[in-house]
Write a structure and sequence with these properties.
- The protein contains 17 helices and 16 strands.
- The protein is an alpha/beta fold.
- The chain has an eight-stranded parallel β-sheet with strand order 1-4-3-2-5-6-7-16, with helices on both faces. Strands 10-9-8-11-12-15-14-13 form an eight-stranded mixed β-sheet, with helices on both faces.
- α2 runs parallel beside α3, α3 runs parallel beside α15 and α15 packs antiparallel against α16.
- The N and C termini lie far apart (65 Å).
- The protein binds nicotinamide-adenine-dinucleotide.
- The site of nicotinamide-adenine-dinucleotide has 28 residues, from α7, α8 and α9.
């Protein structure tokens, strides 16, 4: 265990969990060879020397390895949770007591504490922000406008955060550049699709222990996340129907072999409902009314707004009980509807989030994007930037190499052929 002497500032549930946290963080690290290589280079080159980084990310073992990487690069890092239910208390303990990283996160914290933690990170005057869902950037642009000139730039992890940032940029409200890590191919193609696909099912299974085979599963949203969930649900033998509002995505779902239904059609058909739209109130009162006894609902989109939970609570008229850890039952007119992980990100609330092997690439992008902001902030305008192609390629190449896979290179003849316009039939 790393001994950092006096403890850094923190607010975590139980520092006694430090050893368990270290064991789990080291376990995750074994699956994160790309991030490890970046950390080793950062230790040598110190590209983030003296830079204050404020992070609002899920406090998981994979995030801990990102925090270690930023610190190795010379940064002063302060971390708050990006969701009240996703914090692993053992990870928070280890970050503070073993790795010397200020962490403010308690699993199950209420909204007030969540924002208190975010404000504590803002109090450290970050020069770079790292968000998962744009909450830190929003806080700085609303309550802490005086701090905005201190900020060199930021990075954003998820689709919902990127959508918010684009809306801010379009309004002329964004005051510093933000790199949309989610837009990197080495992020959303793998993290959103395979990571969320697997871990969403992991969360639903840990919470309910239901058999998926033969069940009717409704997936709302056929973006990267929805595609992964539908694919893995089908792999478990479910009949999958997709709900969409985008015609192209709906055709894609059909041709991938799923049914496409409206929310209204799906409500009375499904046994398990999973939302992944990034939108609000996809399933509402009229749909809850149609759902069958025993239906299970879960959300894998960023905010707990995809299911109309106030309506669900009102309809149950107090007949709500915890039937298992992470499962609440709502009794409505004699039938029982079940909600997993309070409608919050089910893969983080009821399981451990994405497997480390996939976060390896996402967080390699985060670390390299932070380095990019330090190097290039003077050339960047207040806008949303995609991750430079060179970073994407570097992450993919390091990942392949770590997997022991060698990539072909084009022969000189092939290079000449693809660059020429004179070759015909
Ligand atoms: N659980 C996780 O760990 C995790 C990981 C990555 C992303 N996310 C979140 O998941 C959500 C989806 O991400 P994504 O990358 O798939 O986004 P995406 O933009 O690729 O896909 C969203 C899809 O939802 C559809 N949609 C929007 N409103 C709808 C509605 N009312 N009904 C049906 N479909 C609707 C859109 O047409 C789109 O096809 C976001 O909130 C994102 O932040 C969660």
């Amino acid at each position: 265990m790393t001994d950092t002497g006096a403890l850094v500032a923190h607010d975590v549930t139980d520092l006694g969990l430090v050893d368990e946290g270290v064991r789990r963080i080291e376990w995750a690290e074994r699956e994160m060879p790309v991030l490890r290589q970046i950390r080793e280079r950062f230790e040598r080159e110190r590209p983030l020397d003296g830079i204050r980084i404020g992070c609002c990310l899920h406090v998981t073992t994979e995030t801990a390895n990102l925090m270690r990487t930023l610190k190795a690069g010379g940064a002063e890092v302060h971390l708050a949770a990006s969701n009240p239910l996703s914090t692993q208390d053992w990870t928070a303990a280890a970050l503070v007591a073993a790795y010397g990283i200020s962490t403010y996160a308690r699993r199950g914290e209420d909204n007030e504490t969540y924002y208190k933690h975010l404000r504590t990170v803002a109090d450290t005057h970050p020069q770079i922000t790292q968000d998962d869902g744009c909450d830190l950037v929003t806080l700085l642009h609303t309550e802490r406008r005086d701090q905005l000139p201190e900020i060199l730039g930021g990075t954003e992890e998820t689709t919902t955060g990127v959508i918010r940032l684009r809306a801010m940029a379009a309004d002329g409200a964004l005051t510093f550049p933000v790199v949309a890590v989610n837009e990197a191919e080495t992020k959303h193609l793998f993290d959103n699709r395979y990571g969320t696909g697997q871990s969403t099912i992991d969360g639903i299974l840990r919470a309910t222990n239901l058999l998926i085979a033969g069940r009717n599963v409704v997936v709302a949203g056929y973006g990267w996340v929805g595609k992964g969930i539908a694919m893995r649900m089908q792999g478990h033998g479910a009949h999958v129907a997709v709900v969409e509002v985008n015609a192209v995505r709906a055709i894609e779902a059909l041709m991938d072999g799923y049914q496409v239904k409206t929310v209204g059609e799906a409500a009375g058909w499904g046994d398990i409902f999973v939302t992944a739209t990034g939108n609000v109130n996809v399933f509402r009162r009229e749909h809850f009314e149609q759902m069958r006894d025993g239906a299970v609902m879960a959300n894998s989109g960023h905010f707990d707004a995809e299911l109309d939970l106030p309506a669900l609570r009102a309809m149950a008229e107090g007949h709500i009980r915890d039937v298992r850890p992470n499962v609440q039952e709502f009794e409505i007119g004699g039938k029982r509807l079940n909600l997993v992980a309070e409608g919050r990100l089910v893969n983080l609330g009821a399981a451990e989030g994405h497997p480390a092997a996939v976060m390896d690439m996402s967080f390699a992008n985060q670390a390299l994007a932070a380095e990019y902001v330090v190097k290039h902030h003077a050339e960047l305008r207040p806008d949303v930037y995609t991750v430079p192609e060179a970073i994407d390629q570097e992450v993919a190449s390091l990942k392949l190499a770590a997997m022991g896979i060698t990539l072909d290179a084009m022969t000189p003849e092939q290079l000449e052929y693809v660059s020429s316009w004179q070759h015909g039939t």
